[in-house]
Design goal:
- It is built from 12 helices and 12 strands.
- It is α/β, with parallel strands linked by helices.
- The chain folds into 3 domains: about 30 residues, no CATH class; about 160 residues, 3-Layer(aba) Sandwich (D-Maltodextrin-Binding Protein, domain 2), CATH 3.40.190; about 120 residues, Periplasmic binding protein-like II (D-Maltodextrin-Binding Protein, domain 2, 3-Layer(aba) Sandwich), CATH 3.40.190.
- Strands 3, 4, 5, 6, 7, 8, 9, 10, 11 and 12 form a 10-stranded mixed β-sheet that branches. A two-stranded antiparallel sheet has the order 1-2.
- The protein is globular, with a radius of gyration of 21 Å.
């Protein structure tokens, strides 16, 4: 009974329920302390850049800090395990990405179930991957790369954020559709994969557009192609991979979730406020310049998106042969 009473008291404190004028009428005050946002990617990655951009603005709106806690590894599975070890009081969130959706269908021995263990808060948006190549390797375009890979199976290496990561699956799908067998080299995060691409330890890697753009614009890496069937305004000369490899399509997406058991009042308020900020012209434009298609979906929209993406990613994983 004492434990039950303590839990009720804790939940009431988390919700910040206070009397508002007339007796019996309550008002939800949230947040009343800093929020921890756990991400499954390394500092400098797409999720990290997006999280910090959004957190800065939400801190201004709420007057409470949102602390971004990067826990890279296992394609985001480490961040999921850590999030589920916390109290579902509304003050710990996780960035749920397409990468973790892929990992949940590729990796074995996972202790969590995305549908069961995480409740939706808000959908942020989506972005393509860019195939980035070392400037000293001989392939200057996709056709050159495919030709070289077919002539020398297993000698061309590409990096990713780890086995089961979306970047890994991007390469697996590319191999599958082109009949090549380029060698996958897993890292703990995309920044490490990019570092080794710059030094030619691996010949290319996949990175989301916000991370890829600075390297393309500086000329340090060559952009061979984008992973969705259209070109991007920021790099209009870079072709879509599907222009050379029909049927090729991959993209990353970002959302905010919380552990199951988080009070609905907090989920509703947090989701509503996040969507409002995402729709601000200044925030939308800032994210678009980073290569993000802003979607700004509420809890219901994210629930629907997760269900549809589960089907899409399942089909892609099976097609690639990467399923467990």
């Amino acid at each position: 009974m004492k434990k039950t009473a303590a839990r009720i008291a804790s939940a009431a404190l988390a919700l910040g329920l206070v009397a508002a004028g007339t007796p019996g009428i309550a008002q939800t005050q949230f947040p009343v302390k800093p929020i921890r946002l756990i991400i499954g990617s390394a500092p400098g990655s797409g999720p990290d850049v997006i999280s910090r951009t959004l957190s800065e603005r939400m801190t201004e709106v709420w007057g409470q800090r949102i602390v971004v806690d990067a826990r890279p590894g296992a394609a985001g599975a480490i961040s999921a395990d850590l999030t589920l070890q916390t109290n579902p009081d509304g003050y710990t969130w996780m960035m749920l990405t397409s990468q973790l959706f892929v990992a949940s269908q590729v990796l074995t021995g996972l202790k969590f179930d995305l549908a069961r263990d995480f409740q939706s808060v808000a959908l942020i948006g989506a972005t393509p991957f860019i195939m980035l190549a070392n400037t000293t390797q001989p392939a200057r375009n996709l056709r050159d790369l495919i030709e070289l890979a077919r002539k020398s199976p297993g000698t061309i290496r590409y990096g990713s954020a780890g086995t089961g990561a979306s970047e890994h699956l991007s390469g697996v799908l590319f191999n599958h559709l082109t009949g090549t067998s380029m060698l996958h080299v897993p890292y703990k995060g995309v920044p490490q994969a990019i570092t080794d691409t710059l030094s030619n330890e691996v010949q290319f890697t996949f990175a989301v557009l916000p991370v890829a753009l600075p390297h393309i614009q500086s000329g340090r890496l060559v952009a061979l192609g984008g992973t969705i069937p259209r070109r991007f305004p920021q790099i209009p000369d870079v072709p879509a991979i599907s222009e050379v490899v029909p049927g090729y399509a991959m993209y990353a997406w970002y959302s905010i979730v919380a552990p199951t058991g988080t009070p609905n009042a907090i989920l509703d308020k947090a989701g509503t406020d996040l969507v409002r900020v995402l729709r601000e012209p200044a925030m939308s434009e800032r994210l678009r310049t980073m290569g993000i298609d802003v979607m700004a979906g509420d809890r219901k929209a994210l629930d629907q998106w997760r269900a549809e993406e589960n089907k899409r990613i399942s089909m892609t994983v099976k097609l690639s042969g990467a399923s467990r």
